[in-house]
Amino acid sequence: MKATKFVPYSEVSFATIPGPATRFFRKFFLWQVWRFFRLNWKMMRIVVGGHS
Amino acid sequence: MSTVVVLGAGVSGHTAALTLRRKLGKQHKVVVVSPNSKYQWIPSNIWVGIGRMESKQVTFELAPVYKKIDVDFHQAKATALHPEGSADHEKPFVSVTYTGKEKQGEEAQIEYDFLVNATGPKLKFEATEGLDPSEGNCNSVCTFGHAEHSWKNLQDVFAKMEKGEKQTIVIGTGHSLATCQGAAFEYVLNIAFEVKNRGLEDQADLVWLTNEYEVGDFGMGGAYVKRNGYITSTTVFTESILAEYGIRWIKRAGVQKVEKNVIHYETLDGEYLTQEYDFTMLIPSFSGVGLNSYNKAGEDITSTIFASNGFMKVDADYTPRPYEEWTADDWPSEYQNPTYNNMYAAGIAFAPPHAISKPMKSKNGNVISPTPPRTGMPSGVIGKVVALNISDRVKANSETNNHKASMAKMGAGCVVSAGYGMTKGMAATMTVFPIVQDWKKYPRWGRDLSYTVGEAGLAGHWIKLLLHYLFLYKAKAKPFWWLIPE
Asked: Do B381 and A50 touch (CB under 8 A)?
């Protein structure tokens, strides 16, 4: 979204905003493939460990 | 031979029915009663609501699936429980009214040995004046039909913006006690994504309107995540995403009335304010579906079986206590009704002992805070555990529940879609363990931070898409469906 949306001292203006590197890695294929498997693994551990 | 009746064919009820059928031998009968002919994968309704999927992609007919696996399916609405039977019935039974075309309006009694109440919630639109989508003011994505209708209306809004008309889009919660913030949050992010794709940012004023004390509470008191070397709250995480997507937010707001183009809400400060809109989607409050119960003599025992909100009482500690005295042990782990041990409640149908978020009262004395979420992963896990306990009891002819799944010992993964596309899509993946904070076990953060994640990226979209296809495969009881976890 465009920077004109930000108004000084509004709540939105105090929020953290991702920089270029973070935005790049969010779409960088190889990194995201790794995150895909890593996050799935974390979720699987949670599901399996959540009931007996 | 035992008969197990499952009321409801949503995530929890359907999981319970499939598990029961797999675990119980053919000499036992599994019966499903659901007023709907179709199963719907509710998490993907968001994509129907923004035109990225059609409703046929998130639904399928239940009858052929149940026929394939030998489950008796009654397309009917349960109207009353008779856990002691009646003068005419030795065994307990449930009264139903058929809703399918063939038997529309016919009534019947279905006897059971075990009952799973997985009716899900009643969407209580009537609790907020003007909220019902049929009145034409507000939209909904709670069902695939609602989502289809929302997409139709949203296209009109996009068309106006393309002509240069500025439009205000308000998404959030439509009642001071509403839950399921996650679904509404997904919807506002997906709308923002589509607005950006169309280059309409200058024409759109996007607003997140919520009953949360802080954004990122999500009805579970928020969470803490490890992120870039810091331990940070989901409030920071959520505010960051909202700000990045150009969405302003109004928090601590209890919506009281929706009129044409104006939403009336009360804040925790006690102010009565309004927000104008051109398009709005607000989640209603939930209640139980309104089942009545009667004993053998025909006396009304509804208040014995159900809590005042209409959800079924289970093995939770319902003693009223202040927030500071709530503990993880208050939460149920077996989901068995304390009065009738052959009745269980799974998914949204069980009555939680209390909220997870701290209840907040406005200066006018009205509670404005989310009720606890019980959707998705926990619903599926609870449905499975209830089915395993019943099948063990049937096979061993015992009274013991061998399987447990407390929301205070169970984690949850929530994948919040924030844009559709295999290369440009995005989702925020959030995991927490446990869902209900256990301050005794985790005194600092309430949860185990090694399991708690908050991360945005393309991988999240792939996960959400994978879950869509995996869970529909599983729900259709295709080969080896049972290998797919809840």
From this structure: yes
B380, pLDDT greater than 60: yes
Strands B114-117 vs B107-111: parallel, antiparallel or unpaired: unpaired
Polymer length of chain A: 52
Give the pLDDT score at A50. Answer: 64
Q: Nearest by CB to A39, from B243, B405, B453: name it.
A: B453
Which ranges of B40-180 does DSSP label H, i.e. alpha helix?
A: 45-49, 55-58, 62-68, 144-162
For B85-102, the pLDDT digits (tens) are: 999 899 999 999 999 988
State how far the Cα of B271 lies from the Cα of B258, in Å rounded to an integer: 17
| Cα of B254 vs its chain's centroid, Å | 20
Pairing of strands B453-457, B427-432: antiparallel
Q: How many beta-carbon pairs under 8 angstroms link A with B?
A: 111
Number of C-beta neighbours around residue B105 at 10 A:
7
CB count in 10 Å sphere of residue B304:
15
- List, in sequence order, every residue forming a beta bridge with B247; answer none if it has no partner: B206
CA atoms within 13 A on the CB side of B402: 12
Question: What pLDDT shows up at residue A1?
Answer: 45
Instruction: Quickly list H helices, B172-301.
Output: 181-197, 234-244
A chain contacts of residue B459, beta-carbon cutoff 8 Å: 32-33, 35-36, 39
Q: Is residue B67 exposed (0-12), middle (13-18) or buried (19+ Cβ within 10 Å)?
A: exposed
Q: With DSSP H G I counted as helix, E B as strand and the rest as coil, what are the percentages for chain B, rounded to 5?
A: 30, 25, 45
The alpha-carbon gap from A31 to the nearest alpha carbon of chain B, in Å, equals 9
List pLDDT tens digits, range B111-148.
Answer: 999 999 999 999 999 999 999 999 999 999 999 999 99
Q: pTM to 2 decimals?
A: 0.94
Stated as kind and residue range, the H or E segment containing B231 is strand B230-233
Would you call B345 helix, strand, or coil by DSSP? strand
Distance CA B247, CA B238 (A): 11
Quickly list DSSP for B407-423: TTS--EEEEEE----TT
| Contact (CB<8Å) A39/B405 | no
pLDDT tens-digit readout, B32-67: 999 999 999 999 999 999 999 999 999 999 999 999
Statement: residue B366 has pLDDT above 70: yes
CA B121 to chain centre: 8
Q: In chain B, which residue's Cα lies nearest the Cα of A12?
A: B243
ipTM: 0.90
Among B410, B431, B456, the residue with its CB nearest the CB of A26 is: B456
Which residues partner with B97 through β-bridges? B77, B107
